[in-house]
Write a structure and sequence with these properties.
Length: 269
């Protein structure tokens, strides 16, 4: 049977060799831990106020890392602990999945790519490792099929990170123009929330957050995407009136409320 060892073990105790797909399950849990780590690091780098979310992210990081350790080191029912450890962050951070639709937003796309596929990998592989452990199918080094799977996942993540980072940087606008007003996105909030301009005026919209925002005014056909560090000039059409501006990812696009943090009132005279 080559480098496989037939060993029967139903208890959660240290083992020699690893049940087939244990390494893949461990990788999935580590991927899940990296998702909130990247988000917290980005928030700290940009001075984004996490408020009470720091403890929330810390708990999910610890759960994922403990799950990775238990799955990697122990056999038997300990493999099923990996399923639970993967489900907790996957359920608690389900909203990161929307980041998969934002490849040009590095700090949304990469955490989503780590959290969602990582959780699925951890769940499926933990179950497979549990079954193999019950059958006593263990290997000292990773067998070729498992090793190729590990290399493929790590390679895809590396390429995706490079592409997303490139798109994020290349998509950044740093206009030197000046406008009659400036609207800043910071800490998931627009400031100021009320802007008065004239027809044909230019306003400057900036983003100081690590996450992707939009400056959207549907009635005026304005829909600008703001990536981290963006500074964009927006020409206001010659249409007098009072309008609502908002961020599509962080407001209700069906019924944007100017009282929300990521919305406001635009008065065009």
């Amino acid at each position: 049977m080559g480098d496989e060892q037939m060993v029967t073990s139903d208890s959660a105790k240290p083992i020699e060799g690893k049940a087939r797909w244990t390494r893949f399950a461990t990788l999935g849990l580590v991927m899940q831990a990296l998702a909130p780590i990247i988000m917290v690091a980005a928030a700290l780098a940009f001075g984004f106020g996490l408020e009470g979310d720091t403890l929330f992210f810390l708990i999910l990081i610890v759960v994922s890392l403990i799950g990775a350790f238990v799955v990697s080191r122990f056999g038997g029912a300990a493999k099923l602990f990996g399923v639970v450890a993967a489900l907790i962050p996957l359920v608690m951070m389900w909203w990161t999945a929307f980041g998969l639709m934002m490849p040009a937003g590095f700090f949304e796309f990469i955490p989503a790519l780590l959290m969602v596929p990582g959780g699925l990998i951890a769940i499926v592989s933990s179950i497979a490792a549990f079954r193999n452990d019950r059958k006593g199918i263990r290997t000292a080094p990773a067998e070729p099929k498992e090793r190729r799977a590990l290399q493929t996942v790590i390679g895809v993540l590396a390429v995706a990170a490079l592409i997303s980072g490139t798109l994020t940087i290349m998509g950044r606008d740093t206009t030197d123009e000046t406008g009659v007003a400036t609207v800043a996105a910071k800490d998931n909030e627009f400031t100021p929330r009320r802007v008065a301009v004239g027809q044909g005026d230019t306003i400057i919209v900036t983003s100081n957050d690590p996450f992707t925002h939009t400056f959207t005014v549907e009635e005026l056909d304005i829909d600008e995407t703001l990536t981290p560090g963006d500074r964009k000039s927006i020409l206001i059409p010659r249409e007098a009136g009072t309008y609502v501006f908002y961020c599509r990812p962080h407001s209700d696009p069906e019924n944007p409320d100017p009282k929300e943090d990521m919305a406001g009132t635009l008065e065009v005279s």
